[in-house]
């Protein structure tokens, strides 16, 4: 298969509706963690030391809808050693197509997680939907922002060093169109957003977003990552969400140590 055919095939291959995946991830933070496995104590490495492009979105001021650095953010883009090696293999696969990964976020300090979970996201949801309160508000917040935790048995995904937020771009150039900004905390960000619409209801922009989301999804999942159904940019390997989504009995990683 030529590179052009391979690219077309990946961009044309449906992801399908992710209703089952959404149900399967329920309760993922109670999933077991296998502390005796070989991966558990792996160090963190910055993906840029392996030639993977990126910029920490929360440390930058070029980060709509925030437009300012987030208190507690760091410039690092660190993941576990095995996760970094997997990302390198994805990048190598993309290179002949003229494409590469671009990372927005990886290991995340608790302060950043807490700010978005406890402050920014509840306020934004209340602004848009004043009727939300209590448990209903918490459920909506946690569709997009996991509760911060230093609990060894229930870490937030980005606190493990196993989760990464990323997109595709032309090598050294512009990012591909994915249909929403990064961190769009609405249904527009759902990985299957454009999969469930009729073809005659899709604009040219929607079709391009669907094709690019498919490409990102397949190059990541075929390497072994699991994608969060509600965010086209979020993938992980080895954390509790990955284990729950893929049916693995226990996660490889707990809280990462800086």
Structure commentary:
With 258 residues, the chain is α+β, with helices and mostly antiparallel strands. It has a single domain (3-246), classed as Muramoyl-pentapeptide Carboxypeptidase, domain 2 (2-Layer Sandwich). Helix content is 32%, strand content 11%. It contains seven helices and seven strands; from the N terminus they run H-H-E-E-E-H-E-H-H-E-H-E-E-H. It has helices spanning 3-12, 19-24, 81-94, 110-128, 134-141, 204-221, 240-246, and strands at residues 44-46, 53-54, 78-80, 99-105, 163-170, 226-227, 234-236. The chain has a five-stranded mixed sheet with strand order 2-4-5-7-6, with helices on both faces. Strands 1-3 form a two-stranded antiparallel sheet. Helix 1 (3-12) crosses helix 6 (204-221) and helix 4 (110-128) crosses helix 5 (134-141). The longest helix has 19 residues, at 110-128. 40% of the residues are buried. The mean pLDDT is 95.
Write a compact overview of the structure shown.
This protein is of the alpha+beta class.
- Fold-level CATH name: Muramoyl-pentapeptide Carboxypeptidase, domain 2
Sketch the major β-sheet: 5 strands, mixed
Q: What share of the residues lie within helices? A: 25-40%
CATH architecture: 2-Layer Sandwich
The structure class reads alpha+beta
Tally of contiguous helical segments: 7
Q: Write down the overall geometry.
A: globular
For the record, the count of structural domains works out to: 1
Strand order of the biggest β-sheet: 2-4-5-7-6
Alpha-carbon distance between the two ends: 43 Å
In terms of DSSP E residues, the strand content is 5-15%
Write down the Rg: 18 Å
Number of strands: 7
| Average pLDDT number | 95
| Poorly predicted runs of 5 or more residues | none
Question: How are helices and strands ordered from N to C?
Answer: HHEEEHEHHEHEEH
Overall CATH class: Alpha Beta
